[in-house]
Design a protein that fits this description.
Number of helices: 4
Radius of gyration: 22 Å
Distance between the termini: 51 Å
Structural class: alpha+beta
Strand content: 5-15%
Order of helices and strands: HEEHEEHH
Number of strands: 4
Strand order of the largest sheet: 1-2
Helix content: 40-55%
Length: 184
């Protein structure tokens, strides 16, 4: 009986270790997917705003020399507009489904509802309310914890925001540098 217990103990410990690694990887996948979806949604929302629209920012106080330090910036990338866009971005996580890579068994998240009402290929995506709830919660957590970084990136960066924000700045996607850019 004692030999059986000695043999089973390492097996049980190994199973516990593997299951905790699997749970950690799933948590990382959902956080990474939420960050990448957040970037996609923000970029799309910014692209829907007329780039010619400008907004005045700065101080409306009059300087001692009689001038004001007001400048015009594009509305789409102004701090106020970005804050407004971030308020509703996590609600759109309900438009995403889960896809599992058959080679790596990693999860990624893809849009399953078209923005324009056209048909989409849903053959590889799984639709699950628990997944979308987890994605939305992860998105809200990211927005809460990294609000300043998100605004800074969208106000100033235009190229490769997904990798710069989700992988390099916030470390939410350490494996994402190996992912194709069209995946979430």
């Amino acid at each position: 009986m004692r030999e059986v217990a000695l043999l089973l103990t390492p097996c049980v410990l190994l199973c516990l270790l593997l299951s905790s690694c699997q749970a950690a990887r799933q948590g990382q996948d959902i956080r990474c997917g939420a960050c990448r979806a957040l970037v996609d949604e923000m970029e799309w929302a910014i692209s829907q705003i007329d780039p010619k629209k400008m907004i005045q920012t700065g101080s409306f106080r009059i300087n001692p020399d009689g001038s004001q330090s007001i400048r015009e910036v594009p509305l789409a990338r102004s701090e106020g507009n970005l804050l407004e866009l971030m308020d509703g971005v996590c609600d759109r996580m309900e438009d995403y489904g889960e896809r599992t890579n058959s080679n790596t068994n990693r999860k990624s998240y893809v849009r399953v509802k078209s923005r324009k009402g056209e048909a989409m290929d849903l053959s590889e995506a799984a639709l699950d309310s628990r997944v979308t709830a987890s994605l939305k919660f992860a998105c809200e957590t990211i927005v809460e914890q990294h609000e300043d970084e998100i605004i800074e990136f969208f106000a100033h960066e235009r190229d490769n925001v997904k990798d710069k924000l989700c992988s390099r700045r916030t470390d939410l996607c350490d494996h994402a540098l190996k992912m194709p850019h069209d995946e979430l």
